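Following up on my earlier thread - several people asked me to post the actual chain instead of describing it. Fair enough. Here it is, all 363 residues.
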Amino acid sequence: MIRFAPLLATAGMCAVTGLTPARAATTEPVSEQAADFTEHAFQFSDGTTLPDIHIHYVTLGTPQRDAHGEISNAVLLMHGTTGTGKAFLAPAMRRELFAAGEPLDASRYFIVIPDGLGRGGSSKPSDGMHARFPHYGYGDVVEANHRLLVEGLHINHLRLVLGTSMGGMQTWMWGERYPEMADALMPIASQPIAMAGRNWLWRQMIVGAIRNDPGWQGGDYSAQPSQWTRVMPIFTIITSNPARMQTDAPDRDAATQMYDTLVADAQKSDANDVLYWFESSWDYNPSPQLSHIRARLFAVNFADDLINAADLGVMQREMPAVPNGRFVEIPETARSYGHQTLAHPDVWKPYLVQLLSDTTRSY
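Reply from S.P.:
Thanks for posting it. Predicted structure:
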């Protein structure tokens, strides 16, 4: 058990990646496709069944098959609470992860990036059901992604499951639910414990603001409620590095403008969708079943992340239960962005390289 791993220097990357690649990188254009998967009669964990749910997803690269005809180079990426799969299609992600020679070179891997249930192009309350949409939990999001892979794309094995923030939490759950399905797991910016303390408190500020907004009307509003959006800047406060925020808003006028901008941005989201985003963590608590995880797991957290506070000692306490697990808490540096360091793969990709090298197989 390695409980702390030093940050790998960029100059040392060549030594870590000096393995025979699954397939040589090419300069040919990488296939990128968007599609929707429909699952019929999907039963939610609250007992509700919908006739159909839709999961929107994007794939990068081309499936490779082993001697048995099974897809052998699949990777699943799962995004955070307020995001969609587009988070992994940002320029920094493409450059640092998917470009030729990078850890998830899209000429070598078949990368599946879904919009989690309740978000983006996938089925969600704002599609028409409003607050009558089933109150899904993280387990439902994980199950819907599993159906997409197995039933929709006929993928029975994954080279890697990687998730950020909420996606990181769902990566822990994935390892417990499907212990034989993935070679490697990388939860980023998450901890394997139930929501409590500060992490639950700030979420309840948002949930309570929506439910008590006069315009919410039990979720059956004809015009979007707006009072709740004045609380939404708490999300930026809790996910950002204080030094970065001070630089971005160095005086009162700039800070006031930042607040107004954050409120205006929140008004672009549907209130019911947001409510469900933050309530859907109700079933998250992987701690009791961590010993069920069989894949090699490398958890990455950031010391200046207020959501997953390092000073709670969670990782030191919980990780010994993971048979093939290790973790790193990356210290705050000039390259830190708090919880949002997850959007800067140049900081954490050395650990991804290390994990993939530790689980190399012949394809």
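The CA atoms of residues 174 and 249 lie 39 Å apart. That should answer part of your original question.
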